[in-house]
Amino acid sequence: MRYFKLTIAYDGTDFHGWQIQAAGKSTIQGEIVNVLRRVTQESIMLHGAGRTDAGVHALGQVASFRTQSSLAALEFQRALNALLPATIRIVAADEVGPDFNARWSARGKTYRYRVYRGKVVPPMVWRYVLHYPFPLDEDAMRDAAARFVGTHDFASFAASTGSEEDDKERSTEREIYSTELGRSADGEELVFTVRGRSFLRYMVRKMVGTLLEVGRGKLKPEDIDRLYELKDRSKSGPTVPPQGLCMVSVDHEEAFRV
Fold this sequence. Notes:
Blueprint: E1 2-10, H1 28-40, E2 47-48, E3 57-67, H2 73-83, E4 88-96, E5 106-116, E6 130-131, H3 138-146, E7 150-153, H4 164-169, E8 173-183, E9 189-196, H5 203-216, H6 223-230, E10 245-252
Parallel strand pairs: 3-10, 5-6
Antiparallel strand pairs: 1-3, 1-4, 2-3, 5-9, 5-10, 7-8, 8-9
Helix pairs in contact: 1-2, 3-5
């Protein structure tokens, strides 16, 4: 048996998220699995580092699979890129050791959310930004963003799993390594970058929604600390739309190359 790691970039606009769903719904994982099964003639299982939602993009999603195929990593990359939709690209393919798993070997993930501040969104970027041309107190937002760093209970910043039982049993404590709120090179975008060990469902989008509430003056930076205590998602900001969010990269333990 041989083991492979894929680094994947995709435009999530036309997909129903990463994870395979019911028949008829196109997903990134489903598209890649279909090609791998076609190439190897095996029932391939593909494990992703994270489950991005419908409309969310990626520059550095990571996935892993095992196979008995004799194809080299570069041959897998070429075959996948030849047969996948142009909106999904395999940036890199590596042969790894049996202990590597895209999800369980992950030690950190970096996400980025883009807010376009200009009056008119250029057609080339509208799929990748939230348009908000109204006044914002960016200094207050930076103060609030810094308060996300550390280990906290992020229950106020997470969506329900859809099951009351699961909501009660899951841990909502997460560790955020760093945050940054800055401007794009052309000054037209406000860009929120966050790196953490792992994230709850909709967590980054709720964090951005809360930062926007701070920027509007509806919340204060110190309210972030209060929200940790409240553990009530109705008190934080709204969940912003998915198109502004991108999984930038995933950090893993060193993958053993064969």
